[in-house]
DNA sequence: CTCTAATCCTACCGCGTAGGTCGGAGAACC
DNA sequence: GGTTCTCCGACCTACGCGGTAGGATTAGAG
């Protein structure tokens, strides 16, 4: 598989925040406990995940009673490549892939067993293309889309997902 | 990361076979030992990997002395989606993704915690798009391309890889 | 006819990491 | 001051990846 549950839970957490997000600048924050119950996720684990999102500046928090988290931007302005990068710490199709700087979305990608033979590793071309496809698919999806998708009646969700995926491909 | 070393080693193995592959129908087979030495990979591990490729019909073998493996098709006719599918047993971006039939390239994809809540999982749309991007990138790459890439002088490889990746994206 | 080089097959193992828990310390609101 | 939150770091466990061991089988070479 590609992504761990960090990405899964983190995205679902953001969707839950995006659902409560109205146009106002600073709405009432949502507590992790409420999100954990709504999505049936372990609270203690969510704490560590949301810390990653906060460090990336995607959410902000207010402590204390009636505190919680809220988005720092409009859901339509949050693209999933940034989200997954914050949660997973990079999007690399193979262990030998390391980005030169932190962000793997635009940075140069380097295979670290480059000099083992005269003719480099032939798979580098392949993994580079795969990574490009993943990042592109992530960047084209916004949080607002996922929020809208999650509010749709279930029987139409499958067809919509397939249609959107076909549009991407 | 996305893929394990099974995919990495398997692709490199195929590249090595493709390099020896001339136009003739049944050329002299290449032994695993030769490939293991050329690519500096553990022989015993390669045995298990090549078994997957054989089961998928991508290579055929002759046993006994001076035996080995050879491709069943021209390198230009071997697309990487089929290869990775054979090696990794499916291309799923998340554990909850399972294909209805064996092949994940065209089969319908289903999230197995579909019915846990009223509003399905919002991440399904995202993972479907990601998987589409990966499969597309794999399907667009043939073994012949990788063979040609691996024979190129090293100093031009990086620039070429980036250019090709940009063309895909 | 045997020796040898190769494919085949199955069981085994160590180790890193994903996934999750626990307990507690600060911060705000009543 | 108690309650409700965020925050933080240590800790634990199951599992799968990556690799090894050892053998059985097949077929060409001499």
Describe it for me?
Two copies of one chain form a homodimer. Chain A has 169 residues and is mainly alpha-helical. Chain A has a two-stranded antiparallel ribbon with strand order 1-2. In chain A, strands 3-4 form a two-stranded antiparallel sheet. Chain A starts with a helix and ends with a helix. Chain A folds into two domains: 101 residues, Winged helix-like DNA-binding domain superfamily/Winged helix DNA-binding domain (Arc Repressor Mutant, subunit A); 60 residues, no CATH class. Chain A is built from seven helices and four strands. In chain A, a hairpin with a 5-residue loop joins strand 1 and strand 2. In chain A, helix 1 packs across helix 3, helix 1 crosses helix 4 and helix 4 packs across helix 5. Chains A and B meet through helix 1, helix 5, helix 6 and helix 7 of A and helix 1, helix 5, helix 6 and helix 7 of B.
Which characteristics define this entry?
169 residues, DNA-binding, two-stranded antiparallel sheet, mainly alpha, 2 domains, disordered C terminus, Arc Repressor Mutant, subunit A, homodimer
